[in-house]
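User: Hi! I'm working on a homework problem where we have to compare a predicted structure to a textbook description. Could you give me the structure for the chain below?
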Amino acid sequence: HPLTRLSTPYHCNIALRINRILLEYSENPRDLYNTSRSLLTLTSSELVNELFAQLTKQTHRQTTGDLAYWHVIAVVLPFIPPTGRVLSYLTSHLERYSELRTPAGRYAGYCHKVLKRALVGGRRQHHPCRLEVEATCGKPYVHSKAMSIPIHLPGGDYHVTGFDTVSSVAEVIMDLESQLGLRSCRWSGYTLFMDDPVNPSVKVPINHASKLCDVIAKWETNTKPLNNQIPQVIGLSYARFLYLTTPNTIITQMEYKLLALQFHGNAMSGIHGMEVELATCLGAVMAQAREGNCPDFSSMKANNDTQKILSDFLDKICAFKHSKPVQRY
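Assistant: Happy to help. Predicted structure tokens:
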């Protein structure tokens, strides 16, 4: 029988189907991705409360097999949190079990944190991505953020940033800026880009209000109909999107470096026009950033070394992708 009061016989039949899906997954906990997608088709608040009432009942027993039900709670909570009394029961249940020093207790603490963030930051809009499903089946409670992904920076470097199932793109950008020592994106003009699913060489800016896991899930959905040559891992990059008029005194050194590296990459790709004087200045800046300041330019050896460094960098920077050399625009 259903554990909550349902209004129609149709809802009672769906409640039995929910119980059957949970039992099948507990007996063979290998396909959490499709199981969660089947449960996320629930649109009625009555059925959502029935789902979490069944999950709360099943997780009262502390056995090894009950971890399968904790997996389902962790994946489904950001999308369809319960309401009313069931929400109070689930919150008390997670708080009580999070005090236990067992794998189930650690999962309860993780689910409690996910529930609080989902209620404050808003629920998810898309289906779960495979990255978060794999992280949930592992040990998401070990680190402060359950998942991590590399974000590529201008110049070929990258920085690994952590996030969870309800982290927005704005939160990921704020963490990246604090770790790299950059200003807020509203003042610097930098933003987060993703690779286009059809053409990975094209960078598409991401809406800051979106959840990062929703962005990854949509990207995975769009790459499925394409050929196998497209990589199945999303590529994220952090670059300048807007060039704002701000005083140079508040721009950090890291922003200067990233801007020089981005302009160098655009010049190499033929996006920006280039003249000989500008290429020389850019070569000097890149040489200084990579090799450091010359200790004594007055000596002949330092002069020769500097000329050699500038010559090497100028040869690399002037290798534009143009059919003919372009002097001025």
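For your comparison, note the following. The longest strand covers residues 147-152. The radius of gyration is 26 Å. Good luck with the assignment!
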